[in-house]
Task: structure prediction
Amino acid sequence: MNPTEQLADLGAEWQNALALYPLYCALAREFVIDLPPCSDLESGLAAPPQESIDQARQWFAEVDERIHVHQLRQFLQTTGLISEEALRNLLAHHLHKQTRTDGDRDKIDFLLVQYFSHCAPSGLQDGDVDLAYMAQVLEPVLGVVDLTPPEGLDFIDQLITEAHACKDLEELFTSQILEKGRKLKVSLGENYFMPAAMLAFARFSFLMRRIFFRLMHQDLNGILDGLRRLEERNVATLDCRKAQFSSDEPIGRLRMICQSWKVMFHAEYSSGQPLRMLTDLRGVIDSALARSEKEMAKGVQARSQAAAAGANGVQENLADSDQV
Result:
C-alpha cells in the first residue's frame, strides 16, 4: 500500500469512528459501562494525528471487549439510533479489525442478519432467500461474493430443512438445530471470515430467526387460546410447577405473563430459561385441555347412559301398564 492509499484508509477509518462514537456512547450508557470519553472523537477533530487514531482504536477495543452480542442485539432492536448507514458502519468496524475474537464473529453474524432484515422487503418469503439474493443485498458490506460455500457447509441446508419441519418450539429445541449450527460455525475458526462462509451463515441465521419467531408466536397464541378455552370450562387455576410456576396458578396471571413475553421475546433468539418456561407452559395447558375434554366426554357419556336408562324405565312402565 502506498502512502496515499494509507492516508485514505486512515481517513475512512476516522470518519467511521466519528460516526460510530455517539452510538457506542449510547451503548455504554445503556449497559452502565464506565469508560472515559475519547477527547478527539468527542471534539469531532477533522484531521487527527496518528496518536489520536491509535487512542480511538483503543477506546473502541475496550468497549467491544465489554459489550456482548446479546447486549448489542437488545440495543439495536430497541434504539431509535439505528439505520442502514449505522449498520454498515458497525459492520465495517468489525470486519476490518486486524484481530477478531469469537465475540466479533458472533457480532458480525448478528449484524449481517440485522442489515439484511433492514434492507430486505417486508413481504419476502423464505423460499426467496437463496444465496444469490443474500449476496445481492449484502454486497454493500461484503462486496461481490463467490457463491461457492467452503467445504463442509452443505450441512447448513439440511439444518434449515429440519427447522422448517418443526411443529413447535419444543421440537425445535429438542432437535438442537441451533446448537448444531453454532458448533459448525465455531468449527470453521478463521475460515468463518471468508465472505462465502459469512454469507452462508447469515442466510442460516436469518431463516432460523424467522422460523424461531414464527414458532414462538404460534406457541404463545396456542397458550392464550388454551387459557380462554379453560376459562370457558370454569377452570380458574392450573398446576404449573412443571413450567416453574405455582401449583395453583391463576389463569388471569398466566395470561398477563404471556402478554409480557410477547414483548420480552422480541429480541430473543436462543433456547434460554424463559423460552423453556414457555414451551413447558404450552405442555401444561395442552395436558389440561386434554384432561378437560376427556372429563367432558365422560360427562356426555354418563348423561347419555342416564337418558337411555330413563327411556328404558319409561318403556318398561308403559309395558306394565298395558298388561294391567
Remarks:
- The first helix runs from residue 3 to 30.
- The longest strand covers residues 237-238.
